[in-house]
Each structure stands twice: as structure tokens, then as C-alpha cells.
Amino acid sequence: MSVHSATLNVMISACRKAARGLVRDFGEVENLQVSIKGAGDFVSAADIKAEKTLREELMNARPAYGWLGEETEPLVGKDPTRRWIVDPLDGTTNFLHGLPHWSISVALEHRGEIVAGIVHDPIKDEMFIAEKGNGAWMNDRRMRVSARRTLEESLFATGVPFGNKDTLPTMLRELARLMPRTAGIRRFGSAALDLTYVAAGRYDGFWEREIKPWDMAAGIVIAREAGAIVTDLEGGPDMLTRGDVIAANADLVEKLRAHLGD
């Protein structure tokens, strides 16, 4: 059983508080007030309310830290080496359509490195937790990446671009190459959960382009602490700045990467 640090306890408490409001709103999803930010990109009243809760809880506990969230203005803290990176509702489109696959993602960055992360799926009562050097956990169970070694037996996840995005043709070519060579490709609509599912061995690998820092920050440390190799699509450490990511076990990551790109 994992023993949580004081910082993780703060993160867990904030996630649980935000989750209560989101679960209530999810139960009445047809009544939500929704504004459209762009084609296929929605923000709900629930989303904004959850980020407000998370910001209050996390910043009250650690007032010197910075902040990067999806729905509120970024903040450089008095301690410029640390910041929270938060997505109050990853999988908003699923949420608004009544699909029970969405999550809250909270990460702590220190000197450019993600050192702690939580991805909370309140509908399934699953909380994925990791802190650098202490392993990855789902509730009280230790997680490890899968041990599969071939593409043919492996199940992968990705994010297919929505709307009129420039990366769609590349993604379609990648799917055409990979789908005949794998056990399947899934597109579930929450990158944070995709990364944690790699950590749990449910997926054997994951990749995505045009992804925001708050979508992947917590998932990066969770997947790494479960034994995954997590890099940008060029094999480097710049996932948050480049906006792309690949995660898989050491036997599969290069085999997967070899089929990506033009």
C-alpha cells in the first residue's frame, strides 16, 4: 500500500472535492449550460466550476506555487520553480454527451519536470496516483506497464483530431499502417486516462499530437512511474512544449514510433 506525501494528500483532497460537483452535474448533463469554444471543443459550466474548486484548494495549500490550467489565467508564483498543471475535466465532450469516461488531472511541476500527478475517474472510482521515485498506484494497487513485446498482440490508444485540424491526414495514414499490424487501436477521448491506462497495462501504448500540457502532465509521471518510456514523438523530453507524446513499454516504444509520421 502506498504512503502519500503531504503534497499528494493536498492533491487527492482537491480532486475529491472537485469530483463531487462534477458527478452531480454529470447526473444532470442535459441541463448544463454549454458554450461553444470551437468545432467539437466545448466548455461547460461544470468545467469552469471544477477548475475554480481545484485552484482554490491547491493555491490555498501551496500559495507560492504557479498555476497553469485549461480554463483560468496562468500564474507565475512567488516560487517560480513549482507550478500546478491542471485539467478540471479531461474528456469534456464525453461528459457533455453522457459518456462515463472523463477525468480530473492534477500535476505538480518542479524545475520543468513533472514530479507528482493524479488522474481521478470518479465515475469508475479509480484514482491513479504517482510521485517521482515512489511508483504508480491505482487506488491502493501498484501498477506496472504490460509486458507485451510485439505489435501484433498489443492494444494501442490515440487521439484522433476533431474538427478541421491539420494533423488529420497524418493520423489517417498512421492508422492505416498500424491497424493491420496490431490487436487494435482505441480512441476514448481522455488523454489523461489513456496515459494512466498504459501505466495500468490496459493499453500497451499511446500517442497523440496537438495535445495541451494539462491533458498529459499528470499522466506522464504516472506512466513513467509504472515503467513506461514517455517522450515526445521525436524521442525527446519536450512533450509539454511540442504538444505531442508517445508512451509504451521499453520493448514496444520504438516499434510503435517507427510507424508514426509521414
List the helices and strands and how they pair.
Elements: H1 6-27, E1 34-38, E2 41-44, H2 45-61, E3 66-69, E4 82-90, H3 92-96, E5 103-110, E6 113-121, E7 126-131, E8 136-138, E9 141-142, E10 155-158, H4 168-178, E11 184-186, H5 191-199, E12 205-208, H6 213-225, E13 229-231, H7 239-242, E14 245-248, H8 253-257
Parallel strand pairs: 3-4, 10-11, 10-12
Antiparallel strand pairs: 1-2, 4-5, 5-6, 6-7, 7-8, 8-9, 12-14, 13-14
Helix pairs in contact: 1-2, 5-6
Which spans of ≥5 residues are poorly predicted at pLDDT below 50? none
Terminal CA distance reads 44 Å
Q: Kindly report the CATH topology of the largest domain.
A: Fructose-1,6-Bisphosphatase, Chain A, domain 1
CATH superfamily of the largest domain: Fructose-1,6-Bisphosphatase, subunit A, domain 1
What are its keywords?
14 strands, Fructose-1,6-Bisphosphatase, Chain A, domain 1, 5-stranded mixed sheet, D-Maltodextrin-Binding Protein, domain 2, 2 domains
